[in-house]
Amino acid sequence: MSVKCEKIFAWIEEWARPELAEDWDRIGLLVGSPADVVDKVLVTLDVTAEVITEAVNEKAQLIVSHHPLFRDPIPFLRSDIYPSSHVYRLIKEGIALYAAHTNLDAAPGGINDLLADRLGLVDVDLLLSTNEEKLYKLVVFVPEGYEDTVRQAICSQGAGWIGNYSDCTFQTKGTGTYKPLEGTSPFIGETGKLEKTPELRIETIVPESRLKNVVKEMLAAHPYEEVAYDLYPLKNQGDCFGLGRVGRLSEPMPLAAFAKKVKADLGLEIVKITGDPKRLVSKVALCGGSAMALLEYAVRSGADVYLTGDVRHHGALDALDQGMAVVDAGHYGTECVIVPVLADYIAKKAKESGEELTVVTSRIKTDPFRYL
Asked: What value, to the nearest 5°, has the Cα angle with vertex 66 and ends 60 and 71?
């Protein structure tokens, strides 16, 4: 049984919410239709000609990539000019393309958390906060005897979380009044007569990303024909999301030893460093991909070393002038960790949903560099 693309996209966006992406990024469905049906997905870091051929040979109808195939709008659809040639071929082969990029970088459990985990960092925090979840107070009025049913429905969809506590609500007793008019079918009361009913006011906190599902389940569980509820925007601080991470090694080590650790933990052939190899490092800032633009935040964090990729000559000099050691583990080397994790996530969501979907990871190593 095939799965609609839109369902797979919804699974991915539960984890890597689109609003977490940078404004310049081009994420989401790039080729194809949400209504396309697939029974096999290929997950890759990059979309190259080889990867498209692999998808064709694998008979995959959807490619999920980290890097978008294109960032700027394509002015024409020609088969002889890159990157439109790749788009042309995907359409011809009937393969959809979806990208989760900077939203997957910023998401909890995404690339930067994976890097921090691989390196065994502790006390991990954001390097740069770029997004804060808005919070709402939900208030609903429920007739006595139905408060547990409605409360459970609300909390089952992610409402009522405060720190490490779930199912956090407050309820007070009161009296609800209403007069059912002609054409209504009241759960309690009679048409044309004012009704006074013992009710409970249930209130709780809801993250904006959960709000739609919480309200939907609340309305489904509520016994009333018309449900009285209120939503209040709050100024309480919600969860923060962002780029990069900063944390500590379990014990200090020389920069050279840390560089060797990065190679071993990420399975890399080579890394580059700037700074004194004998310098002890303890606090580590990192950001996968090409992220020397975050150097100033690494410096502000008090980190001893900054791990990223694509470090250029002048960026390395800037770091040295500010007393920051740098480990350049490459763009591919700092991001390829996400491919098997993303594939496992999609496969798990399909299994939980009872869908038959095959998910495979690309065998093509898309690192364009070779080390001699």
From this structure: 105
Q: pLDDT for 267-279, tens place per residue?
A: 999 999 999 999 9
Two tokens at 283?
Answer: 């606090």
- Phi/psi at 346 (5° precision): -65, -45
CB atoms near residue 92 (< 10 Å): 10
- CB proximity list for 33: less than 8 A, separation 6 or greater: 5, 96
DSSP assignment of 30-60: EES-TT-EESEEEEESS--HHHHHHHHHHT-
Quote the CA–CA distance of 150 and 145 in Å, as a whole number: 10
Q: For residues 306 and 326, is the Cβ–Cβ distance under 8 A? A: yes
Comparing CA positions, the residue from 68, 208, 198, 193 lying closest to residue 131 is 208
Q: What is the chain's length?
A: 372
- Alpha-carbon distance of 154 to 216, in angstroms, equals 9
Q: What is the mean pLDDT of residues 247-251?
A: 97
**CB-count exposure of residue 62 (10 Å: 0-12, 13-18, 19+):** buried
C-beta separation of 62 from 94 below 8 A: no
How many whole angstroms separate alpha carbon 254 and alpha carbon 42? 40
> What predicted TM-score, i.e. pTM, was given to this entire model?
0.86
One-letter identity of residue 46 = D
Strands 169-178 and 135-143: unpaired
Q: How far is CA 42 from CA 21, 25, 210, 245, 350, in A?
A: 22, 22, 29, 28, 14
pLDDT at 371: 86
272-307 residues labelled b (16+ CB within 10 A) or e (exposed):
ebbbeeebebebbbbbbbbbbebbebbbebebbbbb
Angle in degrees, 0-180, between the axes of helices 147-155 and 208-221, rounded to the nearest 10? 150
Q: Residue 198: pLDDT band by 50, 70, 90 thresholds?
A: very high
Contact by Cβ (8 Å): 297, 315? no
Domains of the chain: 3-101+336-361 (3.40.1390.30), 111-130+242-334 (3.40.1390.30), 134-233 (3.30.70.120)
Structure tokens at 317: 């000099």
